[in-house]
Amino acid sequence: MKLANLDLFEDVCRRGSFSAAARARNVAPSVVSRAIAALEAELGALLFYRTTRKIAPTEAGTLLLRELEQHLEALRVLPATLAEATDVPSGLLRVSASHSFGIHCLGRLIPAFCDAYPQVRVELSLTDQVVDIVGERFDLALRHGPLADSSMIAVPVLRTRYHVCASPAYLAAKGRPARLSDITARDCLTFPLAGFSDVWRFQDAGGEVSDVPIRSAMSANSGIVLRDCAIRGQGIVLLSNWLIGADLAAGRLIDLFPDHVATPSTFQTAISAVYPNRKFTPKKVSAFVSFLRIELAKSG
Question: Are residues 169 and 248 in the same domain?
């Protein structure tokens, strides 16, 4: 019985159709149909009721899915587990990260990682959505800020700090805000996410927290776009040091309140590598996480 066919069966059940599973794998629907047909022939049982509009697992299909839920993940990671007998990280490493962090940080680090570990092949997927690491078969995801409670392992790879800043051209034209409350009347550049576009939070050296309402003049789901707009004098922006540290150092952006710690939502702003809690963590995962912690510390 082919593991690939079992894996595909589980994917069809989870996605609810042959065509959805085919699109997710970038294969023709006929490939999925043949794989399921081969599995049914091997098992001697019908696994799906099929109509022109939908499919549903049969009793045999439901039983098979229940068994696979207990054992399929162990079979998937078996090659990586066996590879632990060697000292060399190897295989395909699937990583999920946000667009901005992937482009600005990982784009320059992954080539160096691949040079250091030539037997590892990296597949990087950039999205600002929270992916299902196990369901979508990622080895790890890089996530920002506080993490939801789960059985996953989370390792901080970069401590971050946000800055509220603007360009010298903007400050020359509009004047520098003297107080936190002055930001309320200014044009701000924001992320179009709930809780990110209407209030910014500040904490002073004494620990006092102030919530400042803001007005979003322009929003984008890319920190890189917001950074570029701020440099061009479009407004005031709140971004992390890993993205704008060089701009602050070069004077392209000015930190408006350097004595305050700022945040768009919560002061827990670290970036963490999140991956499944397994008996054996694949060497390719532990090598990548260690590499990120070392290299990001140099630039952080």
Answer: yes
